[in-house]
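Researcher: For the annotation table, I need structure tokens for tRNA (guanine(9)-N(1))-methyltransferase. Please keep the output clean. Sequence:
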Amino acid sequence: MAAASENDDTSLNNQLKPDSEPTSVNLSPPPPAEEKPLSKNAQKKQLKQQRYEAKKAEKKAQEKEHKRKEGERKHKEWEETLANATEEERLKLIESRRSLRKERMEKRSEEKEKKMERLTKAKEIGQNIVIDVDFPHLMSESEISSLVQQIMYCYAVNGRSSSPCHLWLTGVQGEMSTQLDKLPGFEKWFIEKESRCYIEAMADRKENLVYLTADSETILEDLDPKDIYIIGGLVDRNRFKGITMNKAQEQGIKTAKLPIGEYMKMSSSQVLTVNQVLEILVKFLETRDWKTSFFTVIPQRKRTGVDPVVDCSKSERLSEEHQEEDDHLERKKVCVEAPLESGS
């Protein structure tokens, strides 16, 4: 009986045992795909950019050190002047310095009031220009930070202009919004800030939307007060070619490109920064002259040095001050879909 019982148990176990062992499932995430190695040309461009950034950082450090030493020198001279002066002369020097400081403060206050008057007028009747920042998903945190710096420069340039535009920021969300909020005084900026995309925020004026992109076949001859011009803000190191053109086509809005090729020949580096594009437009609002706008803003190193023949009626002699601004206007390197005549 014991043997029979044991056989029964064995038979039951064999019935309950599956035909094959279950296959183990690997739930761990797949290994990351290997990054495609850069081409020799891309490596050269990357190395050139790294050298440029290093040189710029070194220059900035030198300027900071020079400014510090200059401040110490002036302070020392002031202290020596006071030490060698009589009591009466010392009081007069101090009073004179206070008067100069007060005069500077009053001048700054007056300039600020005039600036607010210009921006208020621009909000009512000025040219509408949008910076589309609806690309945070395509950028790293450092790239977003770089774009935010460009936006800061855009606001400063527009505020100084005698004919400022009505400036908009659309698509301000997530990390982009967080970075912008870190800018000193951003909450007081005289600018339109929209969390929605321009296509939603300006749905009632869709027929007036014009996206500026290098891939457009339409050349922008003039700025129409009724139109709203859009600049694509994307720090992508030229990774996403044609992205703004595709976006505009999907949304069914007009596109255009700046007539740069009619006035100058660009070098191999055809990428403009966000603030350069904005400044070109603002300069055109002041002068109604494309050539003056381009030669004032676009750095010499981005030109070949041999410019095409242009209509003499369009040309205007530029001041040395404009030429000296080349390096100043470059500032941080931020790649965008710049509205050049030829695609980047």
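Researcher: And a one-line annotation?
Model: Confidence is low (pLDDT under 50) at residues 1-7, 15-30, 308-344.
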